[in-house]
Design goal:
Oligomer: single chain
Radius of gyration: 36 Å
Order of helices and strands: HHHHHH
Strand content: under 5%
Number of helices: 6
Distance between the termini: 50 Å
Structural class: mainly alpha
Amino acid sequence: MLICIQPCGRDRLPQGCPVLRFRQTMLSVRRFMEESLPPVSAPRPAPQTSRVLLLRLMREHVRPYLPRFALAVLLMMLVAATTAALPNMLKPVLDGVFTDKNRDLLWQISAAILFLFIVKGFASYGESVVMNTTGQRIISDIQQRLFGHLVHADLSFFHAHATGNLVSRFTND
C-alpha cells in the first residue's frame, strides 16, 4: 500500500507524491476510455410491454386454431356437466330405492350413471386430444417460422454468435 509521507495540502499535492501519480494515471485511463468508446447511438424504441406482446402472439398463433379451441371448450363443458349430474343421479337412489324398495329404479339409475361415466370419459379424452394436438401444431408453426427465419439469415449473424449459444436458445426458448 502506498502512503504519501510528505505533508499534502488539500488543493495541491507535491510532484513525487504517489497519490498524485495515481490520480494522473486514473485521469489518463478515463480520457483513453472516453476517446476509444464509440459514440452513443440513438435510443432504441421501447420494447413491447408483456401484455402487448402476449396479445400479438395470441393473434398470430392462436387465432388460426380458434375452432379447435371452441371444440375443446365445449368438451370441457360436457365434462363439467356430467360431473355435476352424477351427484344428482344419486338422490333418486337414496329416495326411491332405499325408502320405496323399488328395484327397477335401481337398474335404470345404474344404467344412467354408467352412461354418464362413459360420456364423461369420451369427452375428457376428446378434450385432451384436441388441446394437445392444437398445442403441438402451434409449436410446430413457431418452429417452422423460426427455421425459415434462420435459413434466410445473413451469414454474419452466425459468425457473430457462438454455435452453442444459438443451439441452446433455439432449443430452450
